[in-house]
Amino acid sequence: MNICLISREYPLDTAWGGIGTYTYNLANGLAAAGQNIHVICQSLDVDREYIDNGIYVHKISHKSVFPFKGRLREFGLRWEYSQSAYNKLREVIDKYNIDIVEAPNLSGEGFIYSFHKKTPLVTRLHTHYSEVVNFLGWNKSLDRSLSCWFENIAVLRSDLIICSTKAHAESVSREIGLNSKKIKIIPLGVSIPEISEERQKNSSPVVLFVGRLEKRKGIHILIKAIPYILKEVPNTTFFIIGRDSFIKDEEVSFFGSKEQSYKEQLVKMLPAECKDKVQFLGYVSSEELGRYYRMCDLFVAPSLYESFGFIYIEAMSYAKPVIGCSVGGVPEVIKDGLTGILVPPADIQRLADEIISLLKDVDRAKKIGNLARAYVEEHFSRDIMVRNTIDAYLEIYKKKNYKYI
Q1: Residue 117 in contact with residue 402, Cβ under 8 Å?
Q2: CA–CA separation, 182 and 319 (whole Å)
Q3: 298 in Cβ contact with 320 (< 8 Å)
Q4: If phi over 0 gives left and psi between -120 and 50 gives alpha, with beta otherwise, what is residue 145?
Q5: Are the C-beta atoms of 123 and 161 separated by less than 8 Å?
């Protein structure tokens, strides 16, 4: 099949979060399975095209054409990028005979195309913008209401909707008035790495966190738990990997002043005697990340909301015990007490106790890690995700017969 994936996020230069990681993994997995893959993604400078691992990558710059971005900034940015993606998509469809188009729900990248479909449109559900607005308690302004509507329409006009977990499918369905049975559940998948020991025996325990530094990821909960952990296991080192975020008036961005830096707020939360035990590493390459996964004894990400939680299966694939919170789709990824540990959200003491328990009981931690690895191999491998995605594409493609508008 000739498949085109639309995603603003795509490594390396726009590897901002989970959508970029998912798109990169899916594109490479589909290409490895013999499919012809095109990716339309954002360029931070000029339009350009190149081939990477057999994947045709079409980088498009953001064109500023929406005239009302004063009061409607979020909506305008979404409209502009969706239009740019559609313009490029028309060229790609005509030149390469594309059979299937997939786009993420976030930002409504497939909105414009949904009104001019020549081939089936598949939408993959990630965290919905309305979920972000509600979680952070932002004012539901006209701009944000229109932005949520923009995403909702793109989803509702799709020929196929794919989601990673039943919990998230039901949540989005309630939000936009969609029957959740119309959504196909295909969990995310990770490439299974080779396991090798990156640290010497009898070295100090290492706890790893991976994720953007923002409230939704629960990093502040881990930071507040660290003093309790160090009191019981004083030689523990904490590695914090992830981009900083900058908290502004009803906005979170990747850029800002030191006063707006969430990392600076986290550092201030740490007692002086704990600071040298915590290392903030920022963004690291995928190769470096693999080294830290191999190095750690325990992976902890106490997110207050996750639609799926790719970071958990990533850590589990390295045979590491993981700790997460019983929120969103996480219980469908972590089987409590078997492949990891689930704690109530925002429960600092319970989180500290579970971390201490696993750091002290090395045999139990190793057993959980091995079960986690086996569980990922059976349910969350990239090959399984790719195979199920191809089957879903073929099923919807055979049902549809579009004429270009």
Answers
A1: yes
A2: 35
A3: yes
A4: alpha
A5: yes
153 to 42, 172, 276: CA distances (angstroms): 22, 12, 49
| Continuous segment of H or E residues that includes residue 391 | helix 382-399
**C-alpha neighbours within 13 Å on the C-beta side of residue 332:** 19
pLDDT at position 405 over 60: no
Q: Which residues contact 25 (CB under 8 A, 6 or more apart)?
A: 188, 189, 190, 191, 382, 385
Entry pTM: 0.90
The per-residue pLDDT for range 363-392, each reduced to its tens digit, is 999 999 999 999 999 999 999 999 999 999
Phi and psi at 126, nearest 5°, equal -115, -170
Most confident of 86-95, 134-143, 194-203: 86-95
C-alpha distances in Å from residue 272, one per residue of 227, 266, 268, 277, 278: 10, 12, 9, 10, 11
Angle value at C-alpha 356, between 200 and 309, nearest 5 degrees: 85
Where do the domains of the chain lie, and which CATH numbers do they carry? 2-189+382-399 (3.40.50.2000), 206-379 (3.40.50.2000)
Q: What angle do CA 50, 77, 113 make, to 5 degrees?
A: 65
Region class of 200: left (phi > 0), else alpha (psi between -120 and 50), else beta: beta
